[in-house]
Amino acid sequence: MSKVSIRRLPTGIPGLDNLLGGGLPEFSFNLIVGTPGSGKTTLAHQIMFSLSNPNNRALYFTVLGEPALKMLRYQQQFPFFDINKVNVSIRFVNLSADLLEGNFDRVLSRIAEEVKDYAPSLVFVDSFRSVVQTAKQKEQGASGLQRFVQQLGMEMTSWQATTFLIGEYLTPESESTPIFTVADGILWLTQNLHRNSMVRKMQVVKMRGQAQAPGLHTFRISDEGVQVFPRAIIQQGAAVGSAIRAVTGEQRVPMGIPDLDEMLGGGLPVGYSLLVVGPSGSGKTILATEFLAEGVRRGEPGVIAAFEKSPSQLLNNQLNTLVKGGQVGVIDTRSLDLSIDETLHDLIAMINQMQAKRVVIDSLSGFELALAPEFSEDFRGSLYRMIAELTSMGVTILMTSELEDRYTDLRFSPFGSAFLADAIIVQRYVEIVGQFKRVFSVVKVRGSEHSKDIRLFDITDEGIIIGETLSEYAGIMSGRPTVSP
């Protein structure tokens, strides 16, 4: 028996095909279900307008009380809407009158007649939930409703068309209906108000014959329509990807500060994640700028994601020149209610576009604040997946993190993210003879020897200048000054 090849149809929705495992199986019967207002109709229209053409016509049944023209009035605001396809490649049929009569057999007959006459490649019924509610209002027997559902499902699976039922349900388990059993694919959409943030998520509950992405995934409805941001899923071995690329003859990334390269043991290993922590004003962003500028000098484009400052505030003269020259890309992520998966999507898109080798995230502290509250609760886990995904691409990452200088203890992260980094540089202030001095040290470079010295540094018009070790400076000063750690 030869293997049957099922064609997969591209949905036209960014990110959704990856979620489905490559697209929609042709001639499949699918449910688009979820909570009220979660975007089901918009999703269905975007798929329909993307796939329909004169050779692949679409039939869209509405069982709503409002006419199709009113629904289309709002859908026309999206760029995917093509008025030239309406009544040519797409036909809308309103079943409200048939449904009000309460005769389910008549509704089924009308649907079957329209499908036979139009011979569509795509069929949508919106909303199936309205049929259920009408059955309850008319006090139809449960057996009658179940029979209608089974017949409708069997009808839709028998057509040589890719079919969709759209309906409202609160949770996948909230209703027991045979339609969930006979469906080939089930897309579940939700929107939740978490504190003051609206978060939309999508789950592929079922997709027969192909490996869909598990779990809940963020999506947005913008002026462009629906866009899905698949959740980063760590592949086997990727979680320790940078550690596996350890240190036997690996390439090193120069930081742009020769003395710092020496302290790191010859530079930062390619594909590593470096965490630079320190208090406000200690020079974290300047160090990140040197890192990107050195990459440009070596023909390695870079990308910076700015979470604390706007691009105009962030870019000093050096970096501004690199950005205007197209050698460094800037992602402005200051808008609130972000998700890590959405940010990762934007980063990957810009990395691929620019063929970037270096990435700066400035800063993790600002990143956490920019996230919608629902995502910040799992910040460590989501950030772990994000870093693993980026390092698996072979880029070298520099992350900064704001850290209060308490002078009496030494910490590497305000929220326990030090485990994410293959290397850590700590910047601190020390008090020497009544003056604050900046010092830094290399705390960790995984799998590599590195300097254990604490060294002073200054920030000048030329960038970061590294000075003596703290012990050498103390020896030079007359009177053997007291050094407060």
Overview of the molecule:
This protein has 485 residues and is of the alpha/beta class. It has 18 helices and 23 strands. The strands form four sheets. Strands 14, 15, 16, 17, 18, 19, 20, 21, 22 and 23 form a ten-stranded mixed beta sheet that branches. Strands 5-4-6-7-3-8-9-10-11 form a nine-stranded mixed beta sheet, sandwiched between helices. A two-stranded antiparallel sheet has the order 1-2. Helix 5 packs parallel to helix 7 and helix 14 (340-354) packs parallel to helix 17. The chain is elongated, with a radius of gyration of 29 Å. The chain starts with 7 loop residues before the first strand and ends with a strand. Mean pLDDT is 82; it is low at 237-249 and 481-485.
Give the oligomer, counting copies of the same chain as homo and different chains as hetero. single chain
- Gross morphology is elongated
Number of strands: 23
Distance between the termini: 76 Å
Strand content: 25-35%
The whole-angstrom Rg is 29 Å
User: Biggest β-sheet: count, sense, barrel?
Assistant: 10 strands, mixed
| Class based on secondary structure composition and strand pairing | alpha/beta
Helix content: 25-40%
The poorly predicted ranges are 237-249, 481-485
- The number of distinct helices, counting runs of at least 4 residues, comes to 18
* Mean of residue pLDDT values: 82
